[in-house]
Design brief:
single chain; alpha+beta; Protein Transport Mog1p, Chain A; 6-stranded antiparallel β-sheet; 9 helices
Length: 334
């Protein structure tokens, strides 16, 4: 399956909303790369663009993290470099997913082997390990490939994160031979990334009991929240690139509930977000921040320090309030 088709299916919801988000993003100047809007090409023999994190000692040549050959597949043509503006030229609407995680740049390299499907490696420098982990959690479908710090393999697409990098490797047609090549390529790239990153602390706030496998998501904005659990067309939680959010999906007795924790830059912003959410989503809530929905489930919300904690679809009021108390207890540990 072609990459563009695959991504369009995978991120169809975000693609619908991306035009709105793109217009909002364009209102602010791009400060990550003064050369935004330009698509860079360069010969692999000339080396790759140097990317650096917050430390000058952390400079890494993106192209050096990828080999020139794997299992008989040879790198061909010129590497392509995209930034937060030109990424739309490469993966259309789905580029908004990566932009929502503050990605810096993407290097794409194509591998060819006569008579075999092409393999394409996309290496994203996300700028931080937290955002590399976050974009990885956007889609967790597939088997664990045991590569990097977290990985999935699904239908010819191998994805993983390590340090501040998110890596997507795919073959244009899945065969047993391409599967082996993708895994070998993944191992090679992961070993080239010497450091390991740290998961965002906020993810540890999610209680582990009944947390569904591969269902903890980390993100910043409301478009990604709505992708995993629809709350509102409007940004009633005042989420932006300065906020951190973790969403856990819980399953018990064929029932599904959700726990959302959002950390704001300061307590005042958290208070404003809490009031906005209560007025829009829970206008009939009790003083305890509880409301029973039409399906007889319970939603609870609470402001705690610079956090807003929300439980959706809890089976009982006691379950809802008890879960929030568990999250509050964990906040003091991060």
């Amino acid at each position: 399956m072609k990459k563009a088709t695959y991504v369009a299916i995978l991120f169809f919801y975000v693609g619908i909303l991306s035009l709105v988000a793109h217009e909002e993003a364009c209102k602010k100047p791009n400060i990550t790369n003064k050369s935004s809007g330009i698509l860079f090409y360069y010969d692999q023999s000339e080396g790759a663009l140097m990317m650096d994190d917050t430390s000058k000692d952390d400079k890494i040549a993106l192209g050096d993290l990828l080999p020139q050959e794997i299992n008989g597949w040879q790198a061909t043509g010129k590497d392509e470099i995209y930034d937060s503006q030109t990424i739309f030229d490469y993966i259309d609407g789905a580029g908004e997913v990566y932009r929502s995680y503050n990605f810096k740049q993407l290097l794409a390299r194509r591998f060819k082997k006569e008579g075999k499907p092409d393999i394409v490696a996309d290496l994203f420098d996300m700028g931080s390990s937290g955002d590399a982990f976050g974009v990885f959690t956007h889609d967790l479908e597939g088997e664990d490939a045991r590569i990097g710090q977290g990985s999935t393999y699904n239908g010819g697409l191998l994805s993983f994160w390590k340090d501040r990098f998110f890596v997507s490797l795919y073959s244009e047609e899945e065969t047993e031979e391409t599967r082996k090549a993708l895994f070998a390529l993944g191992e090679k790239v992961a070993s080239s990334i010497k450091k390991e990153g740290k998961k965002p602390d906020i993810v540890s706030l999610l209680p582990s009991e009944n947390l569904a496998e591969k269902s903890a998501h980390y993100f910043h904005n409301h478009l990604i929240l709505n992708y995993h659990f629809y709350v509102s067309d409007e940004n009633i939680l005042l989420l932006d690139q300065q906020t951190e959010a973790a969403l856990g999906i819980y399953r018990e007795d064929n029932e599904r509930s959700y726990i959302l924790a959002v950390r704001y830059p300061e307590g005042q912003k958290a208070s404003q977000a809490y009031e906005s959410f209560m007025q829009s989503y829970m206008p009939d809530a009790t003083e305890l921040g509880l409301v029973q929905t039409e399906d007889l489930k319970w939603t609870a919300a609470r402001l705690y320090q610079d956090f807003v904690i929300i439980v959706f679809n809890a089976p009982s009021r006691f379950s809802a309030t008890g879960t929030i108390e568990k999250v509050e207890d964990r906040i003091g540990q991060i």
